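Quick question, first post here. What does this chain look like in 3D?
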Amino acid sequence: MPISACGDQYPLDHWRRVRKIIERAINIANMRPQLVWEKAETDIIQAKILQNIYENDVVVCDVSALNPNVMLEAGLRLSTKKPTVIITDEVVKPPFDISTIAYIPYQHNLEFNATDEFVGKLVARLSEVHKAFLKKTYKSFVENYRFETVTPVTVAVTSEQFVLDRLESVSLSIERLTREVSSLSSQSNSRPPFKNVSGNYFTLQPNKFHSAVEVDAMVSADRHSRFISLNARLSESLADRFKKDVRKTDIATVAVIEKEDDDRYRFLVRIRENETEESISSTRHFLTSVLNSYEQQYLRSMSSEG
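> Answer (accepted):
Ran it through. Tokens below.
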């Protein structure tokens, strides 16, 4: 319990009366009452409190008023495997973390008859948990939870297996670098990215594609918005599906589709105004991934037909 007043509802005299009631119950249970900060072996109060919390056979903890120091001490005690008896006046409901523990309530006004009933319950609980602890049958709060740790182990492998694993890792790294170089080469061979421009939205007309000159003319008329240029080999149906995917991003729309060859498309994607560089970069990454998946789908279909 606190050692000082906790607002008007819990004056210091209230805690003194509660202390006497608890000490009476402890004496009836044939135990010796001792405050958590009392210990003759040391003069440092924090050391006294910690030693009593961890060493005493049974601890009674009054969580009324939810005093921070008391709640900390209760948590420390509950981390041990020794009995803890929680009591409260129920003016403030105990927090969820300890609400599953069976606590003993008492009346805040310490009415005589109700207090006598509380003392009887506390005596019975003290005797019960102490006997169970001595018989090693007491199950503490912390023992209701299971904690597992992982222990590092050493795995022996043959030299041949080690070499094969390393070769596979190197092979994967080379494949990744090859894809990156191929992507950079493809970008360098394509037209440079469009300038930051703005203007009207442009829509795809069925069976009509725009030339590079027409695209550049449209972009020149659009002087405040930003565009993303993307290239891929696709079927016409996949190109149209990609246009719908762009709309789903909510910050972009296909302004122009330029058909460079029978199955080569160049998409001019218009970014909505006032978008951040982060959102634009995220959208570019998403659209590139979608477009690459459609291109792979198209190339597989062409391969199977061949």
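The chain has a mean pLDDT of 77.
Residues 159-189 form the longest helix (31 residues).
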